[in-house]
Amino acid sequence: MTFLEAIFQRLHRQADTALLREIHNGEFKSVTGHGLLRLVGQARSYVQGMGLPRGDRGALLAPNSIRWIALDLALMAEGIIVVPLYVRQSPSELAAMMKDSTPAAMFCSDPALAAELRSQWPEGPAVTSLDRVFSGERVSDQALRGHADSDPVTIIYTSGTSGEPKGVVLNAGNINYMLGCTNARLDVLMAGSRQADKVFHYTPLCFAASWIAMLGFLSRNSILTLSTDLTKLSDELKLASPDYFLNVPALLERIRARITETIQKRGRWTATVFSRAERAFLKGADGADLGDRLCLSIAKAAIFPKIRKSIGPNLRALICGSAPLAVETQLFFMMLGISVLQVYGLTETTAICTMDDPSDFEAGKVGPAIPGIEMKVAENGEIVVRGPHIFAGYWQRPEQTAAALEGGWFHTGDQGEMDAQGRWRVTGRLKNLIVLNSGHKIAPEPLEQDLAARLPQAQQLVVVGTERSHLALLLTTASAQGLFPARIQSVVDGLNAALPHYQQIRGFHVVGEPFSIENGLLTANGKIKREAVAARFSAEIERMYQRRPA
Q1: Given this model, what pLDDT does residue 331 score?
Q2: What is the CATH number assigned to the segment(s) 249-313+315-430?
Q3: What is the SS3 assignment for 539?
């Protein structure tokens, strides 16, 4: 049975059960299995009327919604290759990706964006609104068009931290395999539960990990709640009361900062108990003194349960991926009694290579390789993988596909290591390595993560120094409050004290405007475009190196 057949079978089986819902103004808007099948049938009827041949492409541009999911399922059911795109990207970037994938149809929920896309690509196909797709009365009840394992299902564009994004082609075999692996992990997490999983979802469905997660939730016994307003995430979480949900590190960092700020406002006694409890947790039972252990006991009884309830009273775990997670943040949530399970992978690996085992995981590691795949470290320190989850290739880029799959292994571009228990740790990106003019090679990510933990007021940090004599730092903040030069220098000095000379940071510059997708310094999924940052702030970087190093 294919993944799509499994999803449709489940919708028929639970026709009268509310399976999917959105939150609007503090209330649920739900659809049953039958209701979702009807929406899918409406969309299939519309697509059939367009006369699109099997194997053609259909671009989908809309925020997360029930209708997004219905149209995605409908396109796949008709054998159309779905090209999901992120609505927050610039119209020029979106137009470039569509010119590359040449879709026969474009579906867009925003009339203003649709008009901009038409101006960017006048010769492209007509843009169809989602309202029009779902306005018809006719509902197709035709059987699914089956997928062979080799059939392409989607083209998902990589984020393009350097260079233009590439379209990653994932086939039915990739997805069938991956959903079997993810559902097996979720079965371990939910062991003992006799009720449907309650899942909250806010990450954009156009990204590989988010999309795979959504398909997994639809194929298992779950109630999936979609966020519709990220500014109300805290309230939506309380209402949804999920067992687990997918996260990016940036959100967990913000939640941690908010909790810390709230604790400080509750008075000196609470702040002291919390601080000493955290110290005791990090040192462990054997390393902490009696007073700190007593504070940890008090916090476990009186403080931590209230914090857990404020995040989600039924949370079994936070699932985190897409970017490196600071070990201090993972330990922070573990101290509160909330497991943070890490996932590592790339779009080219159908989103996943490793997953934490909910019953046996370690902070700072991203878990063991999923069953049935091979991972190893190549001679240059790069993680390479192979198995049934590896993508079919880049859309219309045979040379780049061959380079990525050289020697029969997919070359991730990441550096990492595996411990004796088979758990992996990702240490950085090969292309991000800084090579000083002394020949020393430094991975910037560990330094940036350490500084982020010490400087929570900093929104983003970028270490620079290629072909220079020493390292320097760019950092952004949403507010200048608490980010004074003396404070930054003190933190940098503290970090430098434990580092060899070539890893020490000798200068810094505070950038007034945070990096964002809109200003072209973040990718669609929030990763820093280091080359773009270096180019944009080249004058500021040059001035840092003209000063006498500290």
Answers
A1: 95
A2: 3.40.50.12780
A3: helix
249-313+315-430 and 3-243 share a CATH fold: yes
What are the boundaries of each domain within the chain?
3-243, 249-313+315-430, 433-546
CB-facing half-sphere around the CA of 18: CA atoms within 13 A: 9
CATH of 433-546, one of 3.30.300.30, 3.90.1580.10, 3.90.320.10, 3.40.50.2000: 3.30.300.30
**Is residue 382 within 8 Å of 427, Cβ to Cβ?**
no
The CATH code of domain 3-243 reads 3.40.50.12780
| Residue bearing tokens 């029009």 | 132
Q: What pLDDT is recorded for position 50?
A: 95
pLDDT at res. 107:
97
User: Residue 237: which of 205, 204, 200 has the closest Cα?
Assistant: 200
The pair of three-digit structure tokens given for residue 42, joined into one six-digit string: 């409406």
Identify the pLDDT of residue 160: 61
Task: Give the DSSP letter string of 282-326.
Answer: HH-TTTS-HHHHHHHHHHHHHTHHHHHHHH-TT--EEEE-SS---
Point out the residues of the chain with pLDDT beneath 50.
none
The one-character DSSP state at 360 is B
* CA atoms of 370 and 349, how far apart (whole Å): 11
| 72 three-state secondary structure | helix
| pLDDT value of residue 453 | 84
